[in-house]
Amino acid sequence: MSELLSGDAVVIVCLALGAVMLAFEAITPGMGLPGMAGVGFMAVGTALMWINHGSTAGLISLFATLVISVCAVLISIKSASKGKLSKSKMILNGTAAAQAIDAERALVDKTGTAATKLNPVGEAEIDGRSYSVLSESGFVMKGDRVKVVRTEGKRIYVRKVDA
Questions:
Q1: Has this prediction a pTM greater than 0.85?
Q2: Which H helix or E strand runs over 39?
Q3: How far is C-alpha 76 from the geometric centre of its chain's CA atoms?
Q4: What is the pLDDT of residues 22-40, one digit of tens each?
Q5: For residue 162, what are the contacts with CB-CB under 8 A and spacing of at least 6?
């Protein structure tokens, strides 16, 4: 059994399988399992190289592993901006969710009317649309004028405007 583990074939298979799994993770949207497995295989291959062939071969293997990993990260970044990954539902760029967040940010400094009592949460109509809002100025009566002061994610904070 030790002859099998000490053979160069196992080292080559571990390093090659690790590189393939990292490349697969880099170009396809996923949950990271192939990438983690790829790093694990490359670590085992590098360790076996170090044990079987000494520190020089181990360092060369480690350097090659790092270069492959950096290339995989760069490919992932490119894919996230322009490739397959950019079309994935996991990336918000250009999706309805991202557009909704941008639209809510555009509400800052706009005024509207409290459609319900804000105690401190309620509904307000701003630019003809109804939004769930949170009052920073405490209780606001239905029909009072409000101004959007900030947004945090999906939360819209308003303050009562004095007439």
A1: no
A2: helix 33-81
A3: 12
A4: 778 777 766 678 888 888 8
A5: none
